[in-house]
Amino acid sequence: MSDKSALELVSLTKRYGDTIAVDAIDQKIPGGTYTCLLGPSGCGKSSTLRMIAGHETASSGDIVLDGHNITDLPPAKRGTAMMFQSYALFPHLSVTENVAFSLKMKGVDKGTRQERARELLELVDMSAYGERLPEQLSGGQQQRVALARALITKPSILLLDEPLSALDPFLRLRMRTELKRLQRELGISFIHVTHSQDEALALADHIIVMNGGLIEQDGKPQEVFDAPRTEFVARFIGGHNIMAGESGKLAVRADRIFLHQEQTPDAALSAVVRAVEYLGTSVNVAVEAPDTGELNVTVGDTAFFANPIEIGQSVFLSWKPEDAHSLAA
After folding, report:
1. At what angle do helices 139-151 and 169-186 cross, to 10 degrees?
2. Residue pair 8/59 in contact by the 8 Å Cβ criterion
3. Is the pLDDT of residue 267 over 50?
4. Residue 270 maps to which CATH number?
5. Is it the case that residue 11 has pLDDT exceeding 90?
6. Do residue 106 and residue 38 come from a single domain?
7. DSSP assignment, residue 153?
8. pLDDT digits (tens, 9 = 90+) for 299-324
């Protein structure tokens, strides 16, 4: 695969007065990948995306796309396109006119730009809606139009700022599948900002976890989930328990802890069940142990109902040594 849309951030920094929103980050993002910038509100992920798009000025550092320094270029000259959370469609223009708008600004003739707009509406499965106004569309349909409009400029990189947050859960899952399909078909880089761990794990080839303006960890979703480097990443990515080890802290996945109703040599850690939450395919059991505080244990539904556990019951915990993963301080 060509690395035409490879992006490099070099000591990229964003300051708002005395506040440092993005703190001299260095990151390479290979071309043709689906990357998620993941982190809580205020971690610097949207500021990073907006600097790549040219909607925020970098305070210092460089943004290099395909070997060209684009740090000071206006948004339209960067080879990037941004899809906003609010979709920002023009209410008085038809769907086709909305999609074709940036080509109109570039002076492309009407026939060519409308034909190109129709091709993109087909790509996002919205061909039948070309004559409608945005207000006549559902949220999911508006989102598809915004996507077509962003893609009409043939960007090297599509930047997506929390693109699924306004949709209901069912539609969110459908659009996730759709975004992944489009990225694969087009072969361009998608960089997608989200605070949803599920979304990042489901979509990304590459996850970058941000916290306090810094990159805490980056890598393939499975690597980040299986081997979080810091307590922050382990807590934010979810599904892990943090406990004190002999030298520093350990993370153990909730689905790698075993609950026993009887004490055995390898299950000597005793705990009391505080809550039981049925989640369909699994059951989340919250337990409290004197040494480790509250821990979450994920039990498969079949195993749980074959031998149910009640709130207030004493249980014993065990896990394999290789599943206890040491965290950097």
Report:
1. 20
2. no
3. yes
4. 2.40.50.140
5. yes
6. yes
7. T
8. 999 999 998 889 999 999 999 988 99
> Residue 88 corresponds to which amino acid?
A
**pLDDT tens-place string over residues 75-131:** 888 989 988 777 778 889 999 999 998 888 888 888 888 888 988 898 888 888 888
Answer yes or no: is 285 within a domain. Answer: yes
Which of 194, 226, 258 terminates a domain? The answer is 226
The answer to whether residues 180 and 258 belong to one domain is: no
For the full predicted model, state whether its pTM sits above 0.70.
yes
The contacts of residue 264 (CB under 8 Å, 6+ apart) are 316, 318
| Beta strands at 68-69 and 19-29: parallel, antiparallel or unpaired | unpaired
DSSP state of 171: H
For residue 14, pLDDT over 60 is answered with yes
> What SS3 state is found at 278?
strand
Residue 79: both structure tokens together:
């080879």
The count of structural domains within the chain is 2
Residue 261 or 48, more confident: 48
The answer to whether residue 166 sits within a structural domain is yes
| Cβ-contact 284, 277 below 8 angstroms | yes
Domain final position from 226, 255, 278: 226
The DSSP string of 116-152 is HHHHHHHHTT-GGGTTS-GGGS-HHHHHHHHHHHHHT
Has residue 233 been placed in a domain?
A: no
Cβ–Cβ < 8 Å for 190, 35: yes
Other beta carbons within 10 Å of 307:
10
**Mean pLDDT, rounded, for 282-288:** 93
The CATH number that applies at residue 24 is 3.40.50.300
Which residues span the domain enclosing 59? 7-226
Average pLDDT of the residues in 277-285? 92
Whole-angstrom CA distances from 118 to 92, 132, 142 are 19, 13, 15
DSSP secondary structure letters along 176-210? HHHHHHHHHHH--EEEEEES-HHHHHHH-SEEEEE
Which 3-state string (H, E, C) describes 38-80?
Answer: ECCCCCCHHHHHHHHHCCCCCCEEEEEECCEECCCCCHHHCCE
